[in-house]
Structures are given as C-alpha cells and as structure tokens.
Amino acid sequence: MTKNVRVRFAPSPTGPLHIGGVRTALFNYLFAKKHNGTFILRIEDTDQNRYVEGAEQYIVDALNWCGMPYDEGVNKNEKFGPYRQSERKHLYKQYADELIASGNAYYAFDTAETLDLHRKDHEAKGKTFIYNWHNRQKLNNSLSLSAKKIQAKLDDGEDYVIRFKSPQDETLHLKDIIRGDIKIDTNILDDKVLFKSDGMPTYHLANIVDDHLMEISHVIRGEEWLPSLALHYQLYKAFGWEAPEFAHLPLIMNPTGKGKLSKRHASKLGIPVFPLNWLDKNTNELSIGYKEAGYFPEAVVNFLAFLGWNPGTEQEIFNLEELVNTFDLAKINKAGARFDPDKTKWFNHHYMQEQNNDELAEAFKNNHSELANIDANYISMVIGLIKERATFISDFWELSHFFFTPPTSYDEKASKKAFKDGTKELMTELISIINNIEVFTVENLQTNIKGWITSNEIGFGKVMMPLRLALVGALKGPDVFDIMFLIGKNESVKRLEKMVAIL
Length: 503
Known about the structure:
The protein has 503 residues and is mostly helical. The chain has four domains: 1-74 and 250-354, HUPs (Rossmann fold), CATH 3.40.50; 90-195, Glutamyl-tRNA Synthetase, domain 3 (Alpha-Beta Complex), CATH 3.90.800.10; 355-404; 412-502, Arc Repressor Mutant, subunit A. 44% of the residues lie in helices and 11% in strands. Strands 1-2-3 form a three-stranded parallel beta sheet. The model has no long low-confidence stretch (mean pLDDT 95). It catalyses: tRNA(Glu) + L-glutamate + ATP = L-glutamyl-tRNA(Glu) + AMP + diphosphate. Catalyzes the attachment of glutamate to tRNA(Glu) in a two-step reaction: glutamate is first activated by ATP to form Glu-AMP and then transferred to the acceptor end of tRNA(Glu).
C-alpha cells in the first residue's frame, strides 16, 4: 500500500461504548498497525443535547483495557487538533458557506412545524415526504426565494439550516472495499441538513471536513453508515477533494441471528454489551462490562475479531500481534455476524490457561475474604490444579473451596455410590498407610496407595471414590493425590477420620 495509512475511530460521547463500537475500533487499529499507519481517536460531540458526562473517558479507558491505545487524538500527539468536534465549531461554517457559494448547498428556512405538516400530509396519502429535487422549489429556501428575500431573512436573524443540493437524474458509482461496486440513483436521495440552526454542523459535514483536514486515508465504520455513503461521496466531489477509501463492517447480530445485538436482548441472556462497567447516573442502573464479568481483554479482542472477519484458515486463537499480521479488509464478510455467547466463553477459557497463576491468585484472594490469611503461593498452586476447568475467576471458589475448608457435608448421591460394605474398614486401613508415609509427596502417595490397592487386589473404585469423597465432599475435583499433597498429611487423615465417623 503506497499511501500513508491514517484511520480514525470516531465515537459519540452519548453513553457507554457498545461492544460493536469496540469491534469497529479494533478493525481500524488492526488495519493501521498492519500498514504501519496511524490510529486516531476523534470525539464526535456535535450533538450536545445527547452528551453524557464521563462517556469520553470511558471510551479511552475501554480502548486501553483492550490493549489498543490510540496513536493520535484527544490530549495525545495532537498533530491535527483539536480532536473534539465541539472545539472545531469555528471551522465548519466556512465550509458550509463554500458549498452555498458553489451552488452545492442552500439555505432552508422551513420551520419544524411546517415540515411536520408536510410529513403528515404525505402519510395520509400513503406517501413518504422527502425534501429533495421534486419539491425543494416549492418550499421555503434560498432556491425558491429571491436574493432580496433571502438577505432579509438572514439580516433578521431568522432560523435556518443549510441543506446539500442532491443532483437530479444521475447515477452514482461508489466503491466499498467490503461490498464492492455500488450504484445509487440520485433521485431517491434527500437533501440532507449539513448545518443546523443551533450553529453546529451535522455529522455529515463535520465528518467529511475533519476526515479531509486530518488526512484520513480509509474510513472503516459500521454498516449503519452505508446509506450515508452517497452523500459523503458527493460532498468530497463538491469540495474538489479526494475521497478516502470506504469499508462498511457488517452488523453484529443477536445470538438468534435476527436483529442487531441490543442491550435489552443481551440483558435477557446475561450477555455484557459494554467493555467496562457503566453506571447510568440518571437511572442508577449498573450495566456489567466484560472486564467486570471476568473476561480477559485478550479473549474479548480475539472473539471480536471473528465477528465478521475470517482469516480463511482453521486457526481461531490469535493474539493481537498475530491479528495485526493476518488482518485483511478483503476477508471481512458482508453478512451480519451472529454473536455466540458460548464461543466467547470458549475464548475466555483458552486465555484463562495462559494467565499467570500468581496474578490469578491475587485476583482470587481479593474477591474472597475466606482467603485473607491464606498464603498466596498456596493459592497459586491450587489455581494451577483447577484452572483448566475454569472459564472465569469467579469459578475458582466452586472448583477449589475444599483446598481451604474441609467438607461440612457429603453429597448424598455420591455417598451411596462410594460407601459400601467394607468401606469403613478399607478407609481405616488407608489412614494407617497414609500415616506411615514419611516423605509426603505426590509420587510417594501414588506409589504407596496404588501399591497397597494392587497387592491386595482391591478394586480401585472401592478406595479412590470414598477417598475423594472424604477430601472433597463430592466425587469431583482434580487428582486425588494432588489434593492430598496440598492440604497435607494431617488434614488428609483428619478428613478421612471425620468421614468414617459420620458415614
């Protein structure tokens, strides 16, 4: 690729960053790094009525947690700053005026009430009201008014918007990296508002101006912006600017494959839709994020990469560096990507196995007061035995509690299965064997206990099942000899004696 790659992730700070937005950021990040380019964060806060305090910092924190910090943007390497659109307000009016001067845009003085009446009138006739070539000469705008009347309205400070003048009877030929060639009949396009009566640009104008001034080479964004592609191409043409290359990512669908993954649907299934916790200050509702739900950032990045993209091989586990090296926009699918909650857990389980046991032990200890006085090295050894069965750190206690506290009861079904005639006598003899083992290691336990079972021609199940029941309280857990070694000789004997006395 010969051109200098510069891509931007441009979210609006109107609330927490949806996981779909994180995927958009990821694909931009991967593309930039693949081509030694620049990953830019721009905050598109032109809609001040929907601005939510804390949302901007949340976006930055989410990107950092995922391991994909931006190279350039708000408060960082501000080569083309400022990077908040609200702070670039002074720029946009001159470009809107330039479009009016060139005949590509016009003033529209129609009130909201008037436009609403037009819409209702069309609905009553079974039609859809579109403000464009077929009716703009009949509406209250600078195309239908004399120059004198236009100037009078402007001098009087009458509210107006600036609309783009869509061409009539033309066919636009657009290109999208993912979707290929697209043809659009301009007669179906409406004359979009570019500049609002409150003095702020709409997304369409600000987006184009900023992408041009920041020298954006590729626009990689969600499918929901595909209907705006025609307008954006026309704006570049109207300004006489070279357009960037476009790539519109497929939607992330609900697990059923029907409809876009929504917060409401995800909540019903217990699926997070935000990377980090978010507290809605208006409703005091807390939405759990992937981080707080126990997902590792590597797992989140890995499963997000596969929502719409496929490397074309059987490989599914990719670290960030591998994703950068393999990523290709041409391998992104057009169809929506179905979100699979079980697959996300599968990824997390994999990355659980790669985590450092000492770090996991620290996190585990911090979440359980029962472990406050337990040696961290001991907890780390326990995790080494049980984490292969765990998907989340929150699974650890259920999988390991018997390493820290002796059983207070015994599973009824397991007890009936493990305790038979003669079991009490076998366990009493086993206690003697354990007490006689001088060097208490896993190897010596295996040698002595298995040797006793074999030499006496005892069925292994007759010994190992009640032994496990005594240690764990159920017929589950890691290797029995590993359990005995960690809890120690005295505790192993004590648990066996207790079970014999009770059962």
